[in-house]
Design goal:
- Helix content is about 10%, strand content about 40%.
- The protein has two helices and 18 strands.
- It has helices at about 1-20, 150-155, and strands at about 25-30, 35-40, 45-50, 65, 80-85, 90-100, 105-110, 120-125, 130-140, 160, 165-175, 185-190, 195, 200, 210, 225, 230-235, 245-255.
- A six-stranded antiparallel beta sheet has the order 3-8-5-6-7-4, with no helix packed on it. Strands 9, 11, 15, 16 and 18 form a five-stranded antiparallel beta sheet that branches.
- It is elongated and about 55 Å long.
- The protein starts with a helix and ends with a strand.
Amino acid sequence: MTWLKKHKSMALVACLCAAMVLPAYGLEIDQSGASITYSKPLSPWRVLIANTDFNDDPVSTSTVTMSVDHTATILVGMPVKFTLGGTAANPGTYYAVCTAIASNLLTIAGAPLEIDDGDLTAMWIGTAERTVQVDLYVSAVYADATNTALLASDMFTYFKWGGQAAYLVAFECTQGTADTGTEPTIKVRVNGVDVCATGVSLSATPGTWTANGAVDIVAAAYDLQRGEGLELNCSTAGGTGDAQDLTVTCVLVYE
């Protein structure tokens, strides 16, 4: 009997411990631990209210005036979702990532904002789980000529996306050996299309990262659907063509 009571007590403690964690996954457990109610899982996106939390007229294509200090809850690296343009009933939905936050200003990288009063109709901040980092590599000489398929031609490899829909909002590049002439320019491609207009001109200092322009993202091309691929485009070859060992890190945001 003592053994049975001991193990029943241990089971009850385990249930109570679980009760402290499970509600975050949409479960509600009464105080006795005897019943469980399933509810809708908590949303990974926290909504901000236009003209209450933020001004609906962006300061620039990458900055938003904050009406309330959210520096304690909006952190650098968190994903951002927003609606703008289109019609009142069907505005466009876009994705970005927070790159800086102050009491009165939010800075993003990703799809560009529109600088028109009232166009920024809604905004959400996502949890860290809504972002993912993908690293791509090309070893040895890589920029001796322009090339829209560096992974396939230089590395004899391919990248196929197997996850849910995600949006490539930012990328950075570095190299192990700089070109002895001018440095090459790199773009990332989604499903065979460049996601940016300008691309990244590599730093002449090996190991120094250079980011694409904050909102140098083509919103018509940055969505990565299941089954689609990523590639690297050397849009401008190096002056001498002897740059080596390219690394590109991409940040994507899940819907």
